[in-house]
Amino acid sequence: xxxxxxxxxxxxxxxxxxxxxxxxxxxxxxxxxxxxxxxxxxxxxxxxxxxxxxxxxxxxxxxxxxxxxxxxxxxxxxxxxxxxxxxxxxxxxxxxxxxxxxxxxxxxxxxxxxxxxxxxxxxxxxxxxxxxxxxxxxxxxxxxxxxxxxxxxxxxxxxxxxxxxxxxxxxxxxxxxxxxxxxxxxxx
Length: 188
Fold this sequence. Notes:
With 188 residues, this protein is of the alpha+beta class. The chain contains four helices and seven strands. The chain has helices spanning 5-29, 41-45, 50-61, 68-76, and strands at residues 125-130, 138-143, 146-151, 155-156, 160-165, 169-174, 179-184. The strands form two sheets. Strands 4-5-6-7 form a four-stranded antiparallel β-sheet, with no helix packed on it. A three-stranded antiparallel β-sheet has the order 1-2-3, with no helix packed on it.
């Protein structure tokens, strides 16, 4: 197996990086017997068990802002309805004196429902009808200048159904609002 000139440089870099990685790993995982900087020389010269020295090192590396007594107090509290769990201490709610509630005690009555608005009126105007023998009656309906011719049962403007045709009026049903309205014959 031959290694080219470029590959030799890459192999050398790889070996150098692996050596550095090995030294860093040894430094992190091996205890060289040094004591912590916080311990005094008198305590380091006496023989102490290994567990005590690690506990001392662990206490000196904790965050100095951590207050264990407050943490223990917050862990012992139980959640109560109305308590803000995101605040350690909350100011008490001020009591308002002088206001006396008069009236019936107990739950407040439910609000009265608002009446549903009436459906909009049908804008069609009935102008008359036409009938030929052997054919059903046809009516003429006007909606703002647009004239529609329809038979009984047909739908006008994709919304209004002609229910019944009489000589003087017509019954129209609004399919969207389920509303029936009688429209009288109007003279123009």
